[in-house]
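Priority: low. Protein: Trehalose 6-phosphate phosphatase. Input follows.
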Amino acid sequence: MKGPRDLDAPWALFLDFDGTLVDIAERPDAVVVEAGLPASLSALWQRLDGALAIVTGRTVEVVTGFLGDPGFDVCGMHGLERRVGGRLSRPDGLADLGTDVAALRSAFADRPGVLVEDKGVGVALHWRLAPEAEADALAAMAALAARLGEGYRIQDGKAVREIVPAASGKGGAIRALMEHPPYLGRIPVFAGDDRTDESGFEAVNALGGISIKLGDGPTAAAHRLPSAPAFRAWLHRWAEGVTGPSDLPAS
Ligand SMILES: O=P(O)(O)OC[C@H]1O[C@H](O[C@H]2O[C@H](CO)[C@@H](O)[C@H](O)[C@H]2O)[C@H](O)[C@@H](O)[C@@H]1O
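Result:
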């Protein structure tokens, strides 16, 4: 009988993007997709009979642009928008935050290291290139979240604070995908590096799956690998059929 520890168990694979499939870069537009990654993802997509999805804080459009528009599923905006089976869906009635994006750009115009990432119905404020601006960035985003009200939530990450619709969440996206083929009946595996991935780890743990934290820090994940490159090396070996989730070290 097959179980979670079998190499050939019927896995479903969920993957974070930043800090997992690509290394963290100084700017969101500067990440590099390493040679061989799209081919390995395609091989795994086929090996898993289509049960592979990227679950990311980026928009679906941005991630598919980086990866060369792969056929596999992508959940963007921390699970808010979902391209499943080639069809994109997102909740109706969400306001575009363009006015707030413009106000943030104006407020930080004299601090060029602070980057405002326009995500349409959400916004991210980055201070990786201006660490001295962290307190002001946190305060500006807290004020904006308070003004926008209960339809939104704050998502903190690595040198970034985001405001996203409250309906977002990686755990919810993974649970929703797991209710339908080709994911239904499979054992979920989710790898990520960041605070936004914790709800995904919790969802996968509750579903009897395998959660993988990359790097340091407290986590709900049951397994850990030291870095994004270490994870991708393992992913390439899984694509070649020489390892799998049964070989992962405990957290
Ligand atoms: O869920 P993820 O795929 O991990 O996306 C989370 C956020 O990642 C991006 O920001 C982070 O990566 C940037 C590029 O390496 C880095 O410059 C930044 O400091 C990090 O916070 C992305 O820009 C956000 O939109 C994602 O939500």
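DSSP finds seven helices and twelve strands in the chain. The pocket of L263DTV3 is lined by residues 16-19, 24-28, 31, 56-58, 117, 124, 126, 128, 157-160, 162, 194, 196 (CB under 6 Å).
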